[in-house]
Amino acid sequence: MSLDVFRLPPASLEEIRGTLGKEQVSSWRTVSQEMIDKFAEATEDHQFIHVDPERAAETPFGRTIAHGFLTLSLLSVMAYETLRPLEHLELGVNQGFQKLRFQAPVPSGSRIRARFVLTNISVRSSGWIQFTYDVTVEIENHPKPAIVLTWLTISKVDPAKAGL
Q1: Which tens digit of pLDDT belongs to each residue from 5-40?
Q2: What is the C-alpha to C-alpha distance for residues 132 and 121, in angstroms, rounded to an integer?
Q3: Domain-located, residue 8
Q4: Angstrom distance (rounded) from CA 97 to CA 81
Q5: How deeply is 63 buried, as exposed, middle or buried, from its count of CB atoms within 10 A (0-12, 13-18, 19+)?
Q6: Is 58 inside any structural domain?
Q7: Which residues span the domain enclosing 108?
Q8: Strand 128-139 relative to strand 111-123: parallel, antiparallel, unpaired?
Q9: What burial class does residue 65 get, using C-beta atoms within 10 Å of its C-beta: 0-12 exposed, 13-18 middle, 19+ buried?
């Protein structure tokens, strides 16, 4: 697997185990109106609260807001810059989410970041490794987070190279 998407060098399974229970925080990322408009085009979700600044200004939000699924989809890039990939990684995929809650809208132009806490690692001798993260996506200068969730990912490594 190409590790080009990751910003940090690979880590051994033992090094990653050392991060269990420790918070890792991404950098701030601006959610621009251009990003929201492109997401609306890609998903064909043109609800006015996302793409019409004049109408959105009349809502309780006071301006356009990001799609909840746009905010959720930014987890990948925030993880790539924050979490070290596993050495000998062949592929990695999302397995799903638990307890996913959208708690506050993300206004256009706001900055968000993610807080990741690795809570569990399940290793199979076949080379499949499941990682469980508690994640909070926060909005800068906002009392409530945008999203709170538990994220399950699966990675495949070469068992011989990874020492499984």
Answers
A1: 677 888 999 999 999 999 999 999 999 999 999 999
A2: 6
A3: no
A4: 20
A5: middle
A6: no
A7: 13-32+66-162
A8: antiparallel
A9: buried
